[in-house]
Amino acid sequence: MGKEAFFRSAEMSLVQLYIATEVGREVVAALGELGSVQFRDLNADVNSFQRTFVKEIRRLDNVERQLRFFSTQIEKAGIKVKKIDGYADVTAAPHATEIDRLAVRTDDLEERVNQLLESHERLTKKQVELLELRHVLIEAGAFFDRAHNVPEELRASLDNDNAPLLESDVEQGTSANPATFQAMNVGFVAGVIPREKMTTFERILWRSLRGNLFLNTTEIAETIKDPKTDEAIEKNVFVVFAHGSGILSKIRKIAESLEADLYSIDEDASIRREQVTEVNSNISDVEEVVATTEATLTAELQSIAEQIASWMVVVKKEKAIYAALNLFNYDQSRKSLIAEGWCATDDLPVVKTTLSEVTERAGLQVPSIVNELSTTKTPPTYYRTNKFTESFQNIIDAYGVSQYREVNPGLPAIITFPFMFAIMFGDLGHGAIMFLAALAMVLYEKRLMRAERDEIFDMAFTGRYIILLMGAFSMYTGLIYNDIFSKSMTIFKPGWEWPYTWNEGDLIMANSTGVYAFGIDPTWHGADNSLIFSNSYKMKLSIVMGFVHMLYSLFFSLVNARFYKKGIDIVGNFIPGFLFLVSIFGYLSFIIVFKWANDWIGTSRVAPGLLNTLIDMFLSPGNVTDLLYPGQPTVQVALVLLAVACVPWMLLLKPLYLRRVNNKKSKAGYQDIASQEVTRLSFEEEGETASPVVMEEMHEEHEFEFGDVMIHQVIHTIEFCLNCVSHTASYLRLWALSLAHAQLSTVLWSMTLERAFKMEGGLGVIMAFILFAAWFALTIAVLVIMEGTSAMLHSLRLHWVEAMSKHFIGDGTPFQPFFFKTVLEDPAM
Fold first, then answer.
1. Residue 770 covered by a domain
2. Would 650 be classed as within a structural domain?
3. Closest to 692 (Cα-Cα) out of 338, 324, 351
4. What distance lies between CA 601 and its chain's CA centroid?
5. How deeply is 596 buried, as exposed, middle or buried, from its count of CB atoms within 10 A (0-12, 13-18, 19+)?
6. 19 half-sphere exposure, CB direction, 13 A CA radius
7. Which among 430, 541, 527 has a CA at the least distance from the CA of 486?
8. Is residue 18 within 8 Å of 336, Cβ to Cβ?
9. Cα–Cα distance measured from residue 774 to residue 92, given in angstroms and rounded to the nearest whole number
């Protein structure tokens, strides 16, 4: 097949590698850069924690954890990380000593960063405590100062121990003289509490102390940051007065349970002033130290940010190398590592050359050996794609991976997928918008690859070539439909001519003057029966396109059967299936085209209804009311008989043939031929001894069971016959969505710009600007994005279900080589 493995997957070989232990790591690193070998696990029976290189992987896990820790701190600090373009030389797999130095360096950096973070958190906590203490001293002090102005008679009324301390006249300055607190056996608790918990605090105190307290609270104007989370929290200062040490202790416990911070303050005003002065001085000192610590931490994180991207790539590569080495066996006698894996046959010379170069650089006398093994195991499926074909292949693989060497549905999808979309999205203007948007992404793809992309835009960017073709095909079908933003275009001379004069209320008819050169005649856009004409045209076109698409896909099953040399699939499945599809829906497509090709008005004949013709073909095969062509009854009877005969043909021929051949083989002493039903591939022996794993696979046997084969064939026959009907009807979505798109575009035009154009004077100009903005925004959001997404999904369904079911087996396994690029792009690594 060569390097162009896209019509079929690349030919694969199972290879066995003998690698000297001294260069095992270097060989795997070189193969990781190459990305050509998918290693097999030769230690499947060994626990993952008991493998050879578990210690190295754990060590790298710790380094990776440290780098993620640095990334988190860098992100919190708002520092920009220096990115690396692509996979530069700096990210190449390093020598083991470089990894050792990196591990030691990250340990030192982690310890230093942790010390700075702990110091910063401790200082920030101290700063918050000092700020809260200052607010408590100021706010509580103001309350104590107001208490000195309370009249003597009001203070005397508090001598009674049973008098409640929570009075409603606190706001008027009523309180107890602080000088009398000790005499009255009254103490107080002061502190700061989150504002959101203040109401809960008051309610609990009231119920716990039964109202025997006095509570004063003041809101702190500034927000205070939590030293651990850096979240801004609104807080209140509170002072609670109560009788007795037991009650005060209870108040402290309640306050602490609600995350309040308690502070000890003095009643004496002079002492409080000294405390405030001291606190302000301490706050200044702490703020200075905090600023210095933050500057040191920022400088350290900036230094790390310059290299962390390359460090992360190096660690991921090194971790992947040891994970691959854990899949190898160790040969004690030869002191070498043994590996097995799948490799594209065309890439074998490159793999051998790479191993030889690594061995030569290491100066070893013992070369690394590559053996090609014989096996009956089905190889993985590998398609060589580029940036253009990759997106189309991805949408096919999302449904299922092709069987090894099976015809790839992704190749025809490059054309059929955007074309089916364009039939439903046919509008020159909307297609141009989509085409230009995709063209911009293609032209600036290198710049956009390096830029930050959100999830939605990344999906569009990944499928930029799909969108480009969808837009181009939509422009083509828009020309066919003669539709641009719901309006027609008169590019060529119309084939119909309207009368020059008429009276109001007259029924006027256009006269045919010829045939429009390309697409639908623009005269139809002004006709009363325009919708009837376009409905009939697009509905019949959908049937014809559906038949062509399904027949085209069915022929791939013939190509597969010839490639696998399964003649019974050709005779027992393809031929009856082809005849069944053509005899019914091929005939329907034929009479649609035949009806289009005839001039029914010129011959003064009534055009027969095709739906009734198809129904009568089965209900009364020999009776045709309105003839399309001479001999129609005989042809339809023959086609019905052929379609009926194809059902038992498809149902019985293959199972009976397989049973007959199996019985002959059994009598001759051969094993059951499971290979006639299950696709198994064998390679020619080349003199090499297969490994134990391969030998087990070569001895796999599948016993022939006629009942199982018959059941599968019954299911296949029923599905094929019913699907021919349902899938043909499913292609009517081409007509339905095309009609919906055109009508929605017409409604949008009539509700916006058409109204503006009917206005005169300055108001018309102003409304034209306003309604143009509305029309353009709704065109992009609704008609291009929403309608485009809907049409794309319907086109995807037509390929996954209607087309691929005619030939696609889809039970293959994808080729997943050991490739550093894939490792680095995987977010889980």
1. yes
2. yes
3. 338
4. 55
5. exposed
6. 30
7. 430
8. yes
9. 53
Looking at the structure of the chain, the number of domains it has is 1
Spatial distance between the Cα atoms of 380 and 401, rounded to a whole number of angstroms: 9
Domain extent for 799: 389-493+530-806
The residue assigned the tokens 């022929």 is 555
Angle at 777 between CA 773 and CA 779, to 5 degrees: 115
φ, ψ at 239 (rounded to 5°):
-135, 125
The three-point CA angle 217-223-227 to 5° equals 110
Tokens standing for 184? 């009255």
- 377-412 exposure pattern, b = at least 16 Cβ within 10 A, e = fewer: bbbbbbbbeeeebebbbebbbeeebbbbbbbbbbbb
Helices 24-34, 348-362: axis angle to 10 degrees equals 140
- Cβ atoms within 10 Å of 633's Cβ, excluding its own: 16
Between CA 375 and CA 397 the distance in angstroms is 26
Q: What tokens were used for 269?
A: 């005003």
Amino acid found at 145: D
Residue 62 has a CB neighbour count (10 Å cut-off) of 15
The sheet that has 261-263: what strands, in order across it?
A: 214-219, 235-243, 186-194, 261-263
CB-based contact 193:258 (threshold 8 Å): yes
Classify 14 in phi/psi space as left (phi over 0), alpha (psi -120 to 50) or beta: beta
User: Cα(289)–Cα(72) distance, rounded to whole angstroms?
Assistant: 24
509 DSSP 8-state letter: -
pTM, 2 dp: 0.78
- Report d(CA 205, CA 203) in Å as an integer: 6
Instruction: With respect to residue 430, please indicate whether it lies within any of the assigned structural domains.
Output: yes
Give the list of residues 6+ apart from residue 4 with CB closer than 8 angstroms, or none: 384
- Let me know: does 636 contact 617? Beta carbons within 8 Å: yes
Report the first-to-last Cα separation within the chain, whole angstroms.
34
HEC assignment per residue over 353-396 = HHHHHHHHHHCCCCCCEEEEECCCCCCCECCCCCCCHHHHHHHH
Q: Which residues contact 750 (CB under 8 A, 6 or more apart)?
A: none
Structure tokens at 318: 């090194």
Residues with Cβ within 8 Å of 654's Cβ and at least 6 positions away in sequence, in order, are 568, 569, 572, 573, 709, 713
How far is it, in rounded angstroms, from Cα 573 to Cα 646? Answer: 10
Q: Taking phi first (over 0 means left), then psi (-120 to 50 degrees means alpha), and beta for anything else, what does residue 35 get?
A: left
Q: Which residues contact 338 (CB under 8 A, 6 or more apart)?
A: 16, 17, 18, 19, 42, 328, 329, 330, 331, 691
Angle between helices 269-305 and 96-147 (to 10 degrees): 160
CA distance 389 to 147: 84
Which is it for strands 214-219 and 235-243: parallel, antiparallel or unpaired? antiparallel
**DSSP characters over 767-801:** HHHHHHHHHHHHIIIIIIIIHHHHHHHHHHHIIII
Question: Contact at 8 Å (CB) between 74 and 305?
Answer: yes
Radius of gyration of the chain (CA): 41
Handedness of CA 425, 431, 435, 437 (dihedral sign): negative
Token readout for 436 is 């230009």
Give mean pLDDT in consecutive 10-residue pieces for the chain, a chain of 829 residues.
Answer: 70 92 89 92 86 90 93 89 61 70 91 91 87 83 65 40 39 42 67 88 85 82 76 85 83 88 79 82 89 91 90 90 91 82 93 89 80 90 92 92 92 94 94 96 90 86 95 95 88 80 75 82 81 89 95 94 92 95 94 87 78 86 83 92 95 92 74 42 39 42 78 94 94 94 91 86 87 93 93 95 91 92 74
CA dist 510 and 518 (Å) reads 19
Query: Which DSSP state fits 667?
Result: H
Tokens of residue 625, six digits: 């009311």
What DSSP line would sit under 51-115, residue for residue?
Answer: STTHHHHHHHHHHHHHHHHHHHHHHHHTPPPPP--SS-GGGS---HHHHHHHHHHHHHHHHHHHH
In a domain, 32, yes or no: no
